[in-house]
TrEMBL record:
<dbReference type="GO" id="GO:0010181">
    <property type="term" value="F:FMN binding"/>
</dbReference>
<dbReference type="Pfam" id="PF01613">
    <property type="entry name" value="Flavin_Reduct"/>
</dbReference>
<dbReference type="InterPro" id="IPR002563">
    <property type="entry name" value="Flavin_Rdtase-like_dom"/>
</dbReference>
<keyword id="KW-0560">Oxidoreductase</keyword>
<dbReference type="GO" id="GO:0042602">
    <property type="term" value="F:riboflavin reductase (NADPH) activity"/>
</dbReference>
<feature type="domain" description="Flavin reductase like">
    <location>
        <begin position="1"/>
        <end position="144"/>
    </location>
</feature>
<comment type="similarity">
    <text>Belongs to the non-flavoprotein flavin reductase family.</text>
</comment>
<protein>
    <submittedName>
        <fullName>Flavin reductase family protein</fullName>
    </submittedName>
</protein>
<dbReference type="InterPro" id="IPR050268">
    <property type="entry name" value="NADH-dep_flavin_reductase"/>
</dbReference>
<dbReference type="InterPro" id="IPR012349">
    <property type="entry name" value="Split_barrel_FMN-bd"/>
</dbReference>
Length: 151
């Protein structure tokens, strides 16, 4: 699976006490255009698993090529993730991390059990898009799109 290049996302939500939660995710895909649906999956062993499964909304951040530090931050354990990055609550009361290439705010549409993960399908209710190159992950390394890619 490490030989398959992917984009890198951070998924955020708030728990019942309005505390922001977030984690790095590379299992992200488009599902449908009508309605506009996306999916991502969460490992059942993640400490915030129950809170993400219970939430009725979440935001998926497509990280920009200069955000490998954000990727590492939200993949780390035992750190104050939101205390170490710039973010704000959106009009949908979701934590939005500054500088992302794009953000899709979603309401939870469906969850599907799949082995040691659960797939969360979200209906996109708002999109924030910036003109930034995405962060890519391939063979355990991060990078942007090569300069000669568009030739």
């Amino acid at each position: 699976m490490g030989n398959y290049p992917t984009g890198v996302t951070v998924v955020t939500t708030v728990n019942e006490q309005s505390v922001p939660l977030g984690l790095t995710v590379n299992s992200f895909a488009s599902v449908s255009l009508d309605p506009l649906l996306i999916l991502w999956s969460i490992d059942k062993r993640v400490s915030s698993y129950e809170e993400f499964i219970k939430t009725d909304k979440f935001a998926v951040h497509v990280l920009a090529s200069d955000q490998s530090d954000i990727c590492s931050l939200f993949a780390s354990k035992g750190v104050d993730r939101f205390g170490n990055c710039e973010w704000k609550l959106s009009e949908h009361s979701l934590p939005i991390i500054a500088g992302a290439s794009g953000v899709m705010q979603c309401k939870t549409y469906k969850t599907i059990e799949a082995g040691d993960h659960t797939i969360l399908i979200g209906e996109v209710i708002d999109i924030i898009s910036e003109k930034k190159e995405p962060l890519l992950y391939h063979r355990r390394k991060f990078g942007g799109i090569p300069e000669n890619f568009y030739i």
